[in-house]
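Hey, I'm writing a tutorial for new members on how sequence and structure tokens pair up, and I'd like a real worked example in the thread rather than a made-up one. If someone can provide the structure for the chain below, I'll link this post from the tutorial.
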Amino acid sequence: MNRAALYFTAPGLLEIREEPLPSPPPGKVLVKTLLSAISAGSELLAYRGLCPPDLSLDESIPSLQGKCTFPMKYGYSLVGRVTALGSGVPGEWEDRMVFSFQPHASAFAAAVEELLPLPPGVSPEEALFLPNLETAVNLAMDGRPVIGEKAVVFGQGIVGLLTTAVLGMHPLARLLAVDRHRLRREASLQFGAGAAFDASDPNLAAAVMDGLGKEDGREGADLAFEISGAPEALEQAISVTGFSGRIVIGSWYGVKPVRLNLGGAFHRSRIRLISSQVSTIDPEFSGRWTKARRMALVWALLKRTAPARLITQRFPFAHAREAYDFLDRQPERCLQVIFQY
């Protein structure tokens, strides 16, 4: 049989190619894709040609071991149904609905270790948010929010919104959101933010500082998250974080330069800049936490946060060019864009 697979071929260009897909070899299964989700962050960097060419697409995902060079397959959020078993695979996998970190394609073969069966009560649409919710959980763990703290989340794309939702489960004194798009700001209020601010406001810092208020005479945020993907947002985060505050940087900027003014108040602020990426767990937690434990928590939080309401556009896989063009050119109208197969 053949399958249709998506390839980025040059900046802003893609093709859907027909490829042979033989029967699954021993120990593997064949999965027919039902849905896949487009990442408006890392995936758009790949689409636009802004990935560092010497960097691996993702060293922790078996299906994404290539370099960030054209042509390349990308994507990491796919739900499908097991349709064939290779020899040695237990029969219980037959017809099972599964999630997998796979590039966009109409079908694929994978070892069962690369598949996550959908638990009862989680729909295929909800399961598409698994990678981004896992990222949000990792960001929160790296930020270590404390009861009564004031937090600001810069960027309210899907990762930002889910991070806001996770932080909203903590007893914080303030939780504010920042994004340039109104649709995202409105969604952030539904996901737990007490107020949302326009990132393009020239008086943003003053507005956020006013929203944070003063606790015992101390100004600024205790904790900020930069997950907008916009390099200028990091300096905005620094400007509203108080003395000895923490900034968790979850954005992947690709080859976009990041220019910071660190010669002023930052020098005396004792602000900590913390790099966060979901493929690893902070060594301080790894004695008690494994990826399996973190994933079990994410499955539970999918039911609690109900993120499928963030799906704003659905495109047939054959219309992939339209989907990426829409997401690239009209981000103000998008939250989550998905493919249907």
